[in-house]
Amino acid sequence: MKHILFIIGSFRKESFNRQLAKIAEDILKDRFVISYLDFNDIPYMNQDWEIKGPSKCLTQEQERIHRVREEILKADGIWIFTPEYNHSYPGLLKNLFDWLSRPMDISNFANPTAVQGKKVTVSGAGGKNKTASCRAKLNELLEYIKMDVMKEPQAGIALGLEAWVKGEFKLTEEQLNELKEQAENFAEFVG
Ligand SMILES: Cc1cc2nc3c(=O)[nH]c(=O)nc-3n(C[C@H](O)[C@H](O)[C@H](O)COP(=O)(O)O)c2cc1C
After folding, report:
1. 137 lines ligand 1 (CB under 6 A)
2. Whole-structure pTM over 0.85, yes or no?
3. What is the CATH number of the domain that holds 93?
4. What is the pLDDT of residues 12-33, one digit of tens each?
5. Which residues span the domain enclosing 62?
6. CA 76 → CA 5, 32, 94, 120, distances in Å?
7. Fewer CB in 10 Å around end: N or C, the chain?
């Protein structure tokens, strides 16, 4: 079975985007191995910690970056679920993709990155903008770092009042269909 790696753009325990990913997992789990990227321990970008040469004798910071890159390399596709922050994507995703945009062995800039050519798509749950600005900017970043981005269809979920009050949400039939359509298209895209 092919493997899809989910990346959640929020570290919040009750994250709506994590809840959304869980629904997508249920849609795809009989056809793909689904796992979640654990990246809350990677440091802020610091070029002092880039990896030069073979990945032996790494510092603790470099080991964390190396582990995340290995997770990415194993995946056939990546699905990002993210909130919108100030009309853009959260800084934690920028930091993650800044690390991933760099050659795994920085001693030669022609060396491959972990993400180049990797198939990716984005969904988001947030306010009434349905994360449209966030996804537009994130799609642009992902293309810039040479990922193979499925830009349409992408599910954008405007959370209802109930979600903000109760801390959990139920998708409307229309929103669920949007998510299913993205899942089906991405399943085909990943192949
Ligand atoms: C710093 C910050 C900026 C935000 N800016 C936006 C925004 O521009 N558009 C929007 O729809 N929601 C915005 N929100 C609200 C988030 O959509 C909301 O907190 C969402 O639940 C976060 O996703 P999560 O539940 O997965 O953590 C913002 C929240 C924070 C913390």
Report:
1. no
2. yes
3. 3.40.50.360
4. 999 999 999 999 999 999 999 9
5. 2-190
6. 8, 10, 21, 9
7. C
